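Justification of computing resources. Each target in the renewal requires a structure prediction run like the one illustrated here; the chain below, 247 residues long, is used simply to show the kind of job we budget for.
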Amino acid sequence: MSTTVEKALKVLELLSTYGEPVKLVDLSRALNMNKSTTYRLLEKMSQLGYVRQESDSSRYMLTTRMWAIGVRAFRNFDLRAWTRRHLEELEREIEETAVLAVLEGVDVVIIDKRESAQAVQTMSVLGSRTPIHCSSLGKALLMGDMENLLPKLPRLRKFTDKTITTLPALRKEIEAARETGVAEAYDEYAIGVSGVSAPIHGVDGALLGVIGISLPTSRAKPPHLDKIRKAVRDHADRLSKALGGID
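Resulting structure tokens:
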């Protein structure tokens, strides 16, 4: 990226954080950029319709053109398109089924996947719904927005002897997952099914979805499991960075 373009984008990003018009000197100081350079960038962006200068105070603010671009981008946003390559890479690296899921109400819904070529594999059905408390995908969603989601959960239904059925225990599990960067579940929804997942964040930390690996519990052992944790965490971080969730 050229230096001029990079500086211009930094000006736009900074202006978007202010709730009122800003003085040139304040922008220059905050950007650690000399006033003449800041002024030239603002003038050019003003000519292009991205920035407006108030006539009475000479302060600067963004125009609605940036908002319009954001609205169009959001309208055309497809999480599956952004994650497709990552699912393919994750499946190739780990040789297990890679899954993408989103939150719908308080359920987990699988919206894309790349199945492994393993003779024995778990069943991940597109469009299927599972409760949020008993899968790695659901726990990863809770990692991303636990404070908002936990109070909305109904009674935690028991599916196996390993299902977490109390909110304090679930909270403790999610807090531990936040420390490691990945959520894990072993035989909690169905015996023989395990998973490792991580949240995908967008601008301002918005929770967009989760990416993970689903595999038979019989294969969820070190060193394979350690490789899965690292790969899932790395792909989630790369996606979040690309989508504006990580600086």
